[in-house]
Amino acid sequence: MSAAYSTGAPRRIWLHLIVGAILLFLVLPVCIVIPESFSDSKYLAFPPPGYSMKWYSAFLTSDDWLASTRASLVAAVLTMVFATPIGVASAYAINDLGPRFQRISMVFILLPMIVPSMLIAIGIFYVYIRLSLVNTMLGIVIAHSILAIPFVIVTVLSALRSFDLRQELVARSLGAPRFAAFRQVTLPQIRPAVISAALFAFIISLDEVIVSLFVAGGNNMVLTRRMFVALRDALDPTIAAISTFFIIVSLLVLGSVALLSRKR
Amino acid sequence: MSGEASSAGRIESADVVNVRALARVARRERLLMVGLFSPAFLLMAAFVVLPIGWLFCLSFVDNAHLSAVHYARMIEYSSYYKILMTTLRISIIVTILCMVAGYPVAYLLAQLASPWSLICLSLVVIPFWTSLLVRTYAWLVLLSSNGPINAFVQWASFTSKPLELVFNETGTVIGMVHVMLPFFILPLYSVIRSFDWSLIQAASSLGAPPISAFARVFLPLSLPGLVAGAVLVFVQSLGFFVTPAVLGGGNVTMVSMKIANNVQNYFEWGASSAFGVVLLISAFGVLAIAARILGFERTFGMAR
Predict the structure, then answer these.
(1) Cβ of A182 under 8 Å from any chain B Cβ?
(2) Which of A85, A204, B16, B134 has the highest CB neighbour count under 10 A?
């Protein structure tokens, strides 16, 4: 942007102040969670009256919270493994087919992004009751994948659009089998996008609340469901410790995605 | 003569063979693409489209009879009507606040030079990728009666009693604006980023003061981005669940909460489905109008 400040306006201090305040509004909640998790008080107070590690030890000694953490991580990893190849395959197909098909398939695939999530949640719940998938890990992974696949497709599709598919045709005309041509020519060039997409799938599963509220209970009660109930019904400060865990995971994922897109 | 004719015939038949072979290759190619697309397609069909279609039908059934009673109740029962109005009111307020707060951020961010634009942009993106529950919890802490915001307000002695900022509509709106603001800022930012600033220079070289150059050149050209962002925020706001359930503290009921409550506590599929259908039709209606005005690609953020 060489044209920065080209409007010829003065320094526009008031604009900077307003924008600064709004940016503060955006990041403040994320910033207070970590200090709050070291509070020694049972009650919500910021800044905390004193500091302790007791909510971390409450988290690490609670069988319920640990079981939920395990269920969440297993679901997130499996969702990543399940949704990424399906999404990549769809993106490849959408990219290869004509514009008319592209538009129809995009609307269809983006449905989970447009339809209110509560409607998707009760729809999935309705089917799962009949298929006995409620509270099973398979059910959770399918449900989370449905929500993650659109993000995978959009991410991979934008990388495929800037890739010249004739390179793959060259490999095939030189005798490479179809899949080998994809794996050795196309995939290495869209790899950053594929890894970003996989990380998105992971974090979408980890953060998902609404569908999990219906289908992820019992032995597979995921962390977000337990947290939601704790937040709504009885405020348990252990949540601050778990929130810190969530923030660290998000920052790690976001950082890796940023590094990948810089390489691209 | 005869030799020429037979060679022409051979060429023709070779053409036919080629055409057939090419058609076969094209068919196989299409089949492969359909095969690659089918897992995602089947998942969406089986777990999104079919159940929603089924719920749509259920919303017209009461005691095994065809009836519109679930829809009639939304108007007849004052508690149901109130839920619809609350949802609409909150969504409109959140949309307006996002436009007012988001526009200056996108406007300034798009003009900042390299290190600052990256820093400010990450300040927008970090909350976007932070778990919704974590942020809701943080607002619970910030807005509580002995939280920092109330401490500040009382220290500055605006009021003697703590403000009631949470467990009501105020808290819900604050939490929702915080969730939706990045959704509004990021697409608008990319629209403004590709804006041709020489147009502003042209306007000022022709004697336009900065304010009118902004109002008559920049604002109209950024309007599609503004409207697309507002539509996105409004449609998403209609379906909110977690934020009103926690920050509303039981005093705010939005449509999604009623749907969940009916299904989880009473297995009332008909009433829930009717609310779901209203939600879906409002969302699609608004998106369709926006797509008609702005064009499909722009509305769904696919424009590059």
Answers:
(1) no
(2) B134
